[in-house]
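Researcher: I'd like a candidate sequence for this fold, 71 residues long. If you have to choose between options at a position, lean toward the conservative one.
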């Protein structure tokens, strides 16, 4: 998975989903975009990178350091 040197710049570079060429994902693939844990769908880092920004939901695999999560 690619790492961003400046995650804030990566977040502000794509203010909404429409800006990401990989978004929306045509078909979610288990073990690539998500996996199931205790009946819940857990999104992977690959999913979040395709999305292009932090959604603010404090996701486990957020590559954007939860920049949009309310404190």
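Model: Candidate sequence:
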């Amino acid at each position: 998975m690619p790492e961003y040197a400046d995650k804030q710049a990566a977040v502000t570079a794509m203010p909404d989903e429409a800006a990401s060429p990989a978004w929306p994902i045509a078909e979610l693939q288990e073990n690539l975009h998500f996996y199931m844990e205790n009946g819940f769908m857990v999104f992977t880092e690959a999913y979040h990178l395709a999305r292009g920004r932090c959604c603010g939901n404090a996701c486990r695999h957020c590559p954007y350091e939860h920049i949009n999560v309310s404190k």
